[in-house]
Amino acid sequence: MRSTNQLTVSKMLDYLWALIGVIVTTLVGIQLARLLDHSSIVMLFLIATTLIALRGRYAVSVFASLTSVLAFNFFFVSPLHTFRVSDPNFIITFIVMFLVSILTSYLTIRFKRQSVLAGAAARQASQLLAFTQALSLAGTIDELTRICIIEIGKILHKEAIILLPGELGKLGGSIPGDEGAKLHSIAEWVYLTGTPAGHGTTIFPDVERSFLPLVGSRSTVGVLCLKEIIEKEGSVVDLIKNPISLYAQQVALAIELQTWEASLRQSEIETEKERLRSGLLSSVSHDFRTPLTGIVGSASTLIDRFKKRRESQEDLELLGSIREEGERLSQFVQSLLDATRLESGRTTLKREGIPLEELLGAAINRLGRSIDRKHITIKSEELPFVFVDPIFIEQVFFNILDNAIRYSPSDSTIEVTSNSQKKGWCVICVCDQGKGVAAADLTKLFDKFHRSSDSPGSGLGLAICKAMIAAHGGEIWAEKMPENGLRFLFTLPTRNDDSLNGIVQS
Amino acid sequence: MSEPKSLLIVEDEPAIVRFLRASLRDHGWRTIETSTGRQAIELTASHKPDAILLDLGLPDQDGMETLRSIRQWTSVPVIIISARDQENDKVMGLDAGADDYLTKPFGIEELLARLRVAMRHRDQSLKNDEAIYTNGDFKIDIAKRLVWQSKKEVHLSPIQFDVLALLVKNAGRIVSHKLLIKEVWGEDRVVTPELIRITIHQLRHKIETDPVRPQLLKTEPGIGYRFASLEKDDSLTSA
């Protein structure tokens, strides 16, 4: 309503100015009537109407032309001070005067409008350029949206919100206000369909905001949500609307560029991180292994000499400890390296078809000394043919058996069985006769650095198993046995099918 | 042999060289030592060692390069030293002509066992007339293509026998997948790893008393197979 009032006031003012113009011309004309003839006075009125036309309103011009003709008739044409005309020649003068006045006004107004339009177009172009330049200064997506909101407010007098995709391909961000959630779902629709909606469109025209999809070169990169700050007077400048779609396009391209730059930066960072990580890994592995090789080798040399000389049993045992602890430390370093490498997510599986029995055998072979020390029997039934990375799965058996042996009493049995419930997969079960763990600890077993108070282990072995099994798309879990003992179960693919990667077993 | 055998140690870590020198001397070896690959090549030419122990991580050049240079003109047994998680290096080393490898950290008895096997293999290739090997209840007559387990004859397919014979001839040494394919099937044949795995699996079930815990035919994951050493029990007398 406020704008309508303003419009009326400004119109009234224009009429008033026109009237004043005609009155002033008339007064000047009366002063000069003795010096000038009628045609010169008509010219004065034409100058006045032309000047009034510069205000830019047709109606006002017509009003000015009409009052000019009337004033000329009343004050200058005899009989004076009446609207009657004695000389019919003056009728022609009046018509010509009126028509010339209207025509000049029309041409003046048209010229003026065109110059205003040209000015507006130029201003619009420079505004768009300034907008694009401002966007290009942004270093991050956040900065970009901030600049964008400020600039759109300045140039288009609109309150802007930019909604960008969040996780899982859904539109992120939020819209303030009571209807925020509803508006956000409209925005989401706009994002998915790439069609504008809201105020000024045919879709959801009742809401006060309008929604524009930000369409990049390949896909919709977000949604621009706009709300008028103040309704402006419908001046001539607005005849060419600032094409919002042009701005939306610039924003979309800037966002796209920014995303590409960000992902490029990210991949550069990742490469550098990976380089540092593998550099660190190889230097750690070298720096630990070299002294450990010296320790284990020297201890074994001394054991060899002491045995020959039949030195005291106690000394031999001490040397044996140095050697075994050295080997254990080396195994721990290996576990740490394995865990770090698996965590980096850069390990690639080298899958091969292989009888599982072979991998179990290799692990048992490596564990030979500790199996014999505790007189543990390892029983196994027929195991399936699996498609796995042999080195990984041998390590899984090694870690699970190492753990089982540690908790098993002497002269006990560890059993390895398998069954296939789901097509393409088998479940492997390793059961021991140890004291087991509390039910609450069953899931914690696979956490990194989880270890029971009396455990001599590193707390890494089972976490590594979990990561290695997960890399094959399988699962690993532990169950308490009805009597004593614990059983570890894990799934392995029995088919050579890469699409099985990542399938989670229920 | 009256003259002590000589071993060239190519290793840049003094602590490792020290224990190698001490223990090898105890077992009748003479050692020549160097810490660089370039000098290793020169010493191999000038001193003609009986075997070489080569660490792959050398300060001046890649150990693999040293190995390739040495292999261009001599078949002297070379044992490489590498870490457990470097299966690729081991396979590459074996492909480049290394006879065997040791995984860090290693004890002296492992080193001596590898050296014994390497030396025996070198001597055997000179007099290739030993045709019967035994290990506990296992016995094989390569010339007659016969195999026994616990005094009972075991029937093997021709391919199974060829695989077993190759492993037995290399008893105590690592036999890589690549060598196995080359020697049994021929280089031109396309053999899937699965075929080798299945053949080994079948063999184990025929010759091992407990196939789950193999005592004769052992797997080295990612590299190949190693047949148990037959040195103590091998016999020249025909059964």
Written description of the protein model:
The complex is a heterodimer of chains A (506) and B (239). Chain A has twelve helices and eleven strands. With 506 residues, chain A is an alpha+beta fold. In chain A, the strands form three sheets. A five-stranded mixed sheet of chain A has the order 6-8-9-11-10. Residues 233-239 and 499-506 of chain A have low confidence and may be disordered. Chain B is α/β, with parallel strands linked by helices and 239 residues long. In chain B, 40% of the residues lie in helices and 23% in strands. Chain B has helices at residues 14-26, 37-47, 63-71, 87-95, 108-124, 158-169, 177-185, 193-207; strands spanning 5-10, 29-34, 51-55, 78-83, 100-104, 132-135, 138-141, 146-149, 152-154, 174-176, 217-220, 224-227. Chain B has a five-stranded parallel sheet, sandwiched between helices. In chain B, strands 6-7-8-9 form a four-stranded antiparallel sheet, with no helix packed on it. In chain B, strands 10-12-11 form a three-stranded antiparallel sheet. Mean pLDDT of chain B is 86; it is low at 231-239. The chains are: A alpha+beta (506), B alpha/beta (239). The interface between A and B is large, with 46 and 37 residues.
